[in-house]
Design brief:
Elements: E1 14-25, E2 28-40, E3 45-49, H1 56-64, E4 71-76, E5 79-80, E6 88-91, H2 103-115, H3 121-134, H4 150-163, E7 168-172, H5 180-197, E8 200-204, H6 208-214, E9 217-221, E10 229-234, H7 243-246, H8 250-266, E11 270-273, E12 276-279
Parallel strand pairs: 3-8, 3-9, 6-7, 7-8
Antiparallel strand pairs: 1-2, 1-4, 4-5, 9-10, 11-12
Helix pairs in contact: 2-3, 2-4, 3-4, 6-8
This protein binds adenosine-5'-diphosphate and magnesium ion (MG).
Length: about 290
């Protein structure tokens, strides 16, 4: 079981420090994030949850080094993050494979970037195939992105990120486009890999069950503009976790209902369509199945 880890602020492995993000728009600056502050320990699994448009991807992009915060910043092992780096692999929401390369070659590119001087060619080939098999894509490794489905592309993106053995794994709704069975398999694999390698993970999700199953802490964001961290929920369920035994676990269900209460009562988001109002769907949203 993972123990609760407490670290002094200045020693945090990953320190997201008082971030503001203002996007320039035609009508002036739009303050998407205000005072987002979070210290993350090595090996922690963090889920970011909040309504659509609140700023989750913006936080992730800042940690990835793709966006520069307007105020504040990110420190990884006390070094400022200003650009992307291989120790922080990203799985994007819209899979981002190079269309002219096969699945194998897309993973190979990342593996070469990290392991070129460390692994022999034969070792690299084994490692690439291992990661493709892990996401059940061994059979299609020589197909190009336009020859496979959206869910399959997403799995290649996950294999590519895992194959880099990153210290920090940043995932933006990584399993959103997968069918339920593949999603469950990927969640279980991710838990196994993470407990083996002790990667630090930040995962954005819309799925309350996924957040509780996988996380050490669930970070719940308020609605924007000026979105910030509303509440943080500690998930102290013993590991390894099994979805079946957790279904009847009282603590699991308490945590689940805390997240639901935050999203549906405290941060209830009402959108107006032609004068009618409707609550933004977050749980049990329709999933796009692979086909
Ligand atoms: N490049 C940008 N320029 C202007 N506004 C942006 C930009 N990127 C995001 N935003 C705005 O910032 C807010 C947060 O966006 P985002 O981080 O994508 O939300 P989430 O991932 O939670 O759905 C939204 O209101 C969005 O419209
Ligand atoms: Mg997003």
């Amino acid at each position: 079981m993972k123990s609760a880890k407490t670290t002094a602020d200045n020693q945090a492995f990953l320190n997201i420090s008082q971030i503001d993000m203002v996007f320039p728009t035609d009508t002036g600056g739009f303050t998407a994030l205000k005072d987002v502050d979070l210290k993350i320990n090595k090996g922690e699994f963090i889920s970011l949850i909040g309504h659509s448009g609140c700023g989750k991807s913006t936080v992730l992009n800042i940690v990835a080094g793709l966006y520069q915060a307007t105020k504040g910043g990110v420190l990884l092992k006390n070094k400022e993050v200003n650009e992307p780096g291989p120790e922080r692999a990203v799985v994007f929401q819209n899979h981002s494979l190079l269309p002219w390369l096969t699945s194998y070659q897309n993973v190979e590119l990342a593996v070469k970037q990290v392991f070129n001087k460390i692994m022999s060619n034969a070792e690299m080939k084994d490692w690439i195939e291992h990661n493709l098999n892990l996401v059940h894509m061994g059979h299609a490794m020589h197909k190009r992105p336009d020859e496979i489905s959206g869910g399959m592309k997403q799995r290649i993106g996950i294999a590519r990120a895992l194959a880099m053995q990153p210290e920090v794994l940043l995932m933006d709704e990584p399993f959103g486009a997968l069918d339920a069975l593949t999603r469950a398999h990927m969640q279980d694999s991710l838990m196994e890999i993470q407990s083996e390698l002790n990667n630090t993970v930040i995962m954005i999700t819309h799925d309350v069950d996924e957040a509780v199953l996988l996380s050490d802490r669930i970070v719940m964001m308020t609605n924007g503009p000026e979105a910030t961290i509303g509440e943080i929920l500690d998930v102290k369920l013993e590991r390894p976790r099994s979805r079946l035994s957790l279904a009847k676990n009282l603590e699991y269900n308490r945590l689940r209902s805390e997240v639901l209460t935050f999203l549906y009562e405290k941060q209830r988001k009402v959108e107006s369509f032609n004068g009618k109002t409707s609550v933004s769907p977050v749980v049990n949203q329709k999933r796009v199945n692979e086909n």
